[in-house]
């Protein structure tokens, strides 16, 4: 079986019941491994066996259920139409509101005892007939298709309710009853309010989605390219990898690449979450979408979907289309909601008729029940919050691969961190220097750097780099000789025979160094000379000095740990490094010693994660290497640092773009805020129905007010989800 994955655009869904029905139909097929439909995003993700079916057949299945399906050629989100286009596309809504205006005027007059403002009978019939027999046709089509598909949607409720009250009013008029015994205004106003609600819902959804779609506008459509010896304007799609591009003050970078000349400050906040501009000069990497203060010429190395921006948007589109486990509550409710409401409406009609003897009251109460109970808000509650939360997370440099990962991150109470490359820089740096009494630091650097220029070890590179940073002139070294596992020696001009390597190789007694570096607290195991990598230097057979090299902490690691602790999250370190080094790092970060574990193998890391989970903890693991992959996969949520090994990123549920543990804290806090927002949305969705249905059943809501309440329920849920866009890291 060869499983393929496709993204489909679905048109025609009006509530969560529609999405649930499409899912149900698709998942019943043997050749569909999994189908997930996102009502808020109007998309479907389908995994299928391409040996048994095709995308065209899958789209036909969806179309038979009453909806339109189209293959999305790109996983990247489409830019939504501008508001002007949205307004034009809802011409029915504006016509409905115009036709409803006379009824609205009459209803306002009736509140003040003025009945003459209500339109005459012939005009009421004409306006109501235009609405019910023409403008309401989309509702009828959707309702019929829904019933044929075996699962009723909200349009069934609206269609039955408004058509019933329209036919009842026609019957009353034909029977010669006075105009105040008819309810044409109810049907017209309900259709108008429901349509207006859909417009507001779509407009608000686009407010949630456009923050993500606008990211696609971060790359310029036209760029300046070097053709031969001339700079020429070109469309971005004509640019090839290897082309030389120019970006000047205020322009955006069009491709991931390398600066060839010039200098500038680049705003990369939308990509990495780094709020401060980053300095760029020859040799610096630039990212598509970053905006410049300055001017650079750069070589294009990645274009389009292969850039960091494109990769981010692909990941985001997939994640937004996925479904969080908490959404199953809405799915289950939607599956039984409409039949339940129809039953309640029928009981309301019968009970009201029996107790009041008025068929008119019974019908009005039943219609109000049908209209107020629209399950739209229920279907929007989870996906709207997830989509908004995903956008916020991306802006803070955290990519969640799916909605389930984001939901689970909101429950995290324990974080396990790898050390190297996660908490630390991942490359050695000089932490301490010791010199013999007759040797200066400059002389020590000259001697060591001259010899280490012939080595390729990271420790050697760190020493040579520091010498260059100090502006020390490095003399020539000749006759280099390597003693395997011990060090390197050479004749250095103006100095003599220099040996660089292990203390024994360089005739250095480390006891003197340790005594000089002994900390006052009497804990030599935490002294840098006890735990660092040592490089000793001798000149002409005499010990000249030594360097202690260690992997330094990232600048924000301590702040990130403090933030996690402040929010009640336990923090552990698991590292393959020796226990003394791990203990030293833990002390520097404020992590309790029992929470710091060294000498960890990939298996022992995974076993430790399993033990924490067995204690009932929700565990996040952060790592960047192959040895972290098993633990990343076993954790409730695995976070890989961007630039990690492929297997680590593949095993993880989320990626930290800026290689900062602070972004981990941001990701967890954003997920918590999103989960809280989902619960609030579900409360709003349920409370409208819990309060609205009984009020309507007892005649305390007219169909018109019920329609307005139904519209407001969806808008309130979406408005609450949009509050996530204001999230501020703390």
From TrEMBL:
Protein location: Cell membrane; Endomembrane system
UniProt entry tagged with the keyword Nucleotide-binding: yes
Chief place where the protein resides: membrane
Keywords: ATP-binding, Cell membrane, Hydrolase, Membrane, Metal-binding, Nucleotide-binding, Translocase, Transmembrane, Transmembrane helix
EC number: 3.6.3.4
Database matches in CDD domains: HMA (cd00371), P-type_ATPase_Cu-like (cd02094)
Transcription regulation found in the keyword field: no
GO cellular component terms, semicolon-separated: endomembrane system; plasma membrane
Lipid bilayer topology: Multi-pass membrane protein
Stored InterPro entries: ATPase_P-typ_cyto_dom_N, ATPase_P-typ_P_site, ATPase_P-typ_TM_dom_sf, ATPase_P-typ_transduc_dom_A_sf, ATPase_P-type_domA, HAD-like_sf, HAD_sf, Heavy-metal-associated_CS
GO terms classed as biological process: copper ion homeostasis
Molecular function GO terms recorded: ATP binding; ATP hydrolysis activity; copper ion binding; P-type divalent copper transporter activity
Matches recorded under Pfam families: E1-E2_ATPase, HMA, Hydrolase
Ranges that cross the membrane: 94-115, 121-140, 152-175, 181-200, 333-356, 362-386, 682-698, 704-722
Domain HMA: 4-70
Family, similarity comment: Belongs to the cation transport ATPase (P-type) (TC 3.A.3) family. Type IB subfamily.
NCBIfam families to which the protein is assigned, alphabetical: ATPase-IB1_Cu, ATPase-IB_hvy, ATPase_P-type
Protein name (Swiss-Prot/TrEMBL): Copper-exporting ATPase
